Amino acid sequence: MTTDHTPTPQEAAAAEASPAETLAPEAKIAELESRLAEMSDAYLRAKAESENIRRRADEDVAKARKFAVEGFAEAMLPVMDSMEAAIATPDAKVETVLEGVHATHRQLAAALERNKVVQINPAAGTKFDPHQHQAISMVPADQEANTVVAVLQKGYLIAERVLRPALVTVAAPK
User: Fold this and answer.
1) Nearest alpha carbon to residue 85 among 99, 73, 75
2) Is residue 65 part of a domain?
3) What are the tens digits of pLDDT across the range 96-150?
4) What is the rounded distance in angstroms from the CA atom of residue 127 to the CA atom of residue 95?
5) CA–CA gap between residue 150 and residue 153 (Å, rounded)
6) How many domains does the chain have?
7) In a domain, 46, yes or no
8) Which of 16, 25, 45, 124 has its CA 20 to 30 A from that of 106?
């Protein structure tokens, strides 16, 4: 008598199994060890590459910090040259020296502007701004309270950040 045997799901899966799954245990272990070696090698290479990237990034940041003022220093060199030229001629006439001082001031102003250093010089009557101005005193004045009466020392911004606030006197409340 012949009995029809229906395969169980496990038997069906074993029949359809890939060649690697039907290998002898020793061959399967050798294949897994080979895959492990490949993955370990890939991992070590990726780790080394990420370390190299991190090291290069650290070097780039260090160079950026070290040479951050290079452009500004280059802009200051002509100003220094002008001042040295003025010092080198001690017998120059006052008018000539004053003309040279004005020229040097223009060079300095241009160099600061090229490097995004902007003056804070509020006009009289400008509303007092504690973020950009430093009040030295309050004085009675014929203008609205809490407005700038006079600038005692100009302030400066660098890239919209206050480098030094303007020193001002402010109108006192009436």
Assistant:
1) 99
2) no
3) 999 999 999 999 999 999 999 999 999 999 999 999 999 999 999 999 999 999 9
4) 39
5) 9
6) 1
7) no
8) 124
15 burial level (CB within 10 Å; 0-12, 13-18, 19+): exposed
Residue 155, pLDDT > 90, answer: yes
pLDDT of 9: 66
What pLDDT is stored for residue 159 in this prediction? 87
- pLDDT confidence tier of residue 4, bands split at 50, 70 and 90: low
Classify the C-alpha dihedral 99-100-106-108 as positive or negative.
Answer: negative
Domain span at 168: 117-173
Does pLDDT of 7 surpass 90?
Answer: no
Alpha-carbon torsion (167, 150, 105, 162), positive or negative: positive
CATH of the domain at 127: 2.30.22.10
Inside any domain, residue 151: yes
CB 168, CB 122: distance < 8 Å:
yes
CA atoms of 11 and 60, how far apart (whole Å)? 61
Does residue 147 fall inside a structural domain?
A: yes
Strand partners, 169: 137, 150
d(CA 161, CA 2): 94
Residue 14 has pLDDT above 90, yes or no: no
DSSP of 108-120? HHHHHHHTTEEEE
